[in-house]
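Can you give me the bound-state structure? Components:
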Amino acid sequence: MEFAQKFELYACLQCGKCTGGCPVAMRTPLNVRMLMREALIYGVDVLLGRPEIWDCTTCKTCTLRCPRKLEPSEVLIAIRAKLVESGRIPKNVIDALEATYVHGNPWGRARQKRTEWAKGLGVKEVAAGERVELLGFVCCAVAYDPRLQPIAQTFAKVMAISGVDFGIIGIEESCCGNEIRRMGEEGLFEELKDSNKALIEGSGAKEVVALSPHCFNALKNEYRLEGVRAIHYTEILEGLISQGRLPLKGPLAKRVVYHDPCFLGKQNGVYEAPRRVLEAIIGTAPLEFSRSRETSLCCEGGGGRMWVEGTGTGVRNSEIRVKEALEMGAEVVATACPFCLLTLEDALKTTGLEGKLEVKDILELLGEALGVEVDR
Amino acid sequence: MKVVVCLKRVPDVAEVDLQLDPSGRRIRTEGLPYVINDWDNYALEEAIRIKERTGGQVIALTVGKEPDEEVLRRALALGADDAIRIWDPLLEEADPFLIAVVLSQAIKGLAFDLVLTGVQASDDGYAQVGPMMAEMLGIPHVTLVTHLGFEGKKALVRRELEGGLEEEVEVELPALLTIQSGINEPRYVSVLGIKRVAKKEIKVLDLEALGISPSEIRPKIKVEKLFVPPSGEGAEILKGSPEEVSDKVLEILEKGGVI
Amino acid sequence: MAEHRQGQLRDITFEMLKKAQGLSEALGQEVHTVLIGEGLSEMVEGVRPYCHKVHLVPVEGVKEFEGEVYQAALTRLIKDLTPSLVLIGHTAQGMDLAPALACAINSPLVSDCYDFGFREGRFWAFRQVYGGKLSAQVEVEGSPVIVTVRSGSFEAEGLRTLGGQVVSWEGPVGVFPYKRFLRFVEAPRAEVDITQAEVIVSVGRGIGGPENIPLAEELAKALGGVLACSRPVVDKGWLPKERQVGTSGKTVKPKVYIALGISGAFQHVAGMKQSGLIIAVNKDPKAPIFGVAHYGIVGDLLQVVPVLLAKLKERKK
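Here's the bound-state model for the whole set.
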């Protein structure tokens, strides 16, 4: 009963708008409308054994669409939290959580190597006692994955070129905890938040810029930062471009379609900044998917899905997306989220579209437009 | 059933460039991440499962300093009833024999049915403490246990041999078993779970409390020095025709004890 | 201690004999071998030529290894023969026996050594620590020294003939009803669990197509290992999910990981970087896998693997 009261389950109309907008509802047994009902009638414990609990990407479409302002996505996260307390969670989730606890990142990479991407770039580190105006929050995946490191490297170079007093935390930066919380580990999230918050607030920075929309979401909505505003990198770039501080070499001749990441777009309302940046890079507005902005098709990379395969079979959303891009004649799918990038690029491989289409982060395209070289 | 489980906290050295301390006999531990020894984690999970199945108690022990209590907190969070940490400055250079001495002394009066340890520790990998404890306690032991069942006052276990072969062994309780990884799927222990047991008492025993006199503390083996085994940085690229590289690969596999 | 199972002497026995022979020469001490249990007369000729003496300890009803029995037998023998060094394999038998034996006779035990000897009367041993990242030189106090020897540390070749004597020991060893070997069990093969394999041959997209996978599987079999793969191979339906190594698959820590046509994408590497020995084959010299592999071959796996396989088969003959 406590659970039902906490999430106001009795207020649920069972209208089905949640499941109707759920990106995995057609491919998996996950039926969040039904979960809301069953949690009320039978109590949440009967739901604990359902494997589809881990299919949810926490895109939050259900919550955003609920006419009663209920939060089905939070109900689902709360179910996961109970599973975490019981210890009975998928092995991959255990590994990701334990790795985050021990090493500060869910990939299990050594904390000592968190800033290797920045070698030779002369990036200031606030943990070393420096203070900066703009603090960068790098993101575990971007820091460690060679495919994603160019995102951070390009951003650092752009900061240098435009003379922004920029710096990062350094190896003391830990996972933002966005996915950690969404996998149900509240306690670990709080610890990560406390640690990062102290470092961010102590940096002297007025703004903290996140390279990943997932980090952006946590910093902006869940950290309650004091005296520091959290923004996404596209917002910084938009500003720099409109001030003419970026020496763009001239438009990149590429047909680019923009994919709105859930954590940037529908959850946090950042739609224009990435588009304006792309327009400055390619000289024209980017192509649009029919499902874009608020209705953008979730790539299925969030909510722990980078570690949990999911129960679904059949064509993945990411595969649908890249095929749509090809059909509309795009050469590049641009995105502003490292998880979207990895998931969509994976889809290129499984659909055999490698060589016919590319997936790039907006920063990678910007790097090309600026003639900035990074190590690949 | 009363189960005693012995745990060790070890450094996670997967991606670390290990540095030696000035003595050359130990590694520098500043900044190293620590985890529960993998094998001990399986042993702990097994102990908790036995408690869940048969009722009874689980008592967790470790030999170490205060930070090592982390593994005991994990045990308590999982439902262990008691936790004991053993430490004395004289144990700084302890070898497996001494560890076995102090652990055995700590538990010998506890009227246990079963003692579980991991097969070995991932830092030094001696695989000695368990069977030595059994010998000192005067109870039978079985190592490399991959499956465990009970029949009255006996344990029916499977142990891992080489090449995919296993054997079934029957042993009378009380007995000591060293647990092989993969015997079960250890559950997750949440941060909140650990917080909830933060106030639970952990008994700390030194040599005096154990009734061991310092003169009895003589390690039998000692690390004289640590050194980097000769090898290269990054992949050593093997050059040549398929014939030549294949020969080189065979040599490498032989040296590695694979073929 | 000669190690045997199901009536056959195991390789570790000869590896230890090889090292013992070398030490024997250097120290001017004899090599004695101990054979315990049943069916000893069939096995004795396998070791007798290579040592100075073979001690047979027949124990009725104990055909297969029983720790208590072996411990009792060795305790008696060690007391009577006063060796300076006792060699046991670091195997399932040795790991069960050696620590308890060492304790019972109050001797130092250095386990899992890959080399050892005496220098100016002092014993030394080398063993790996921290997952092989470092080696340790160990010294001991007490005698005899018991050593368990890591498999594959010494070559069981070129053993000298020492023309050994056979000594049969009489008398009961003891009865130990509280611990009994019951039977052997073949590990269940119902489902493939790559996480328990010691040797893994893993394929990535570079394998080209499902038609080439049997080749990799053969290599895995020839090495006594299992086949695994990276995510794209599963996604393409060439191998089942249970074979996948990586962050959304399984994490493996085998003794050997052979990566064929795997680029070494981050999510894959996370699942296998703790492997003991990593050998990678890839056409791309910049493939990230070479950053984590110990040995690399820049080339076409479809050219290299058949040759490697042929040589392995020949070697077995």
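A couple of observations. The first strand of chain A starts at residue 124 and ends at 125. The interface with chain C takes residues 92, 95-96, 107-109, 144-147, 306-309, 342, 346, 349-350 of chain A (CB under 8 Å).
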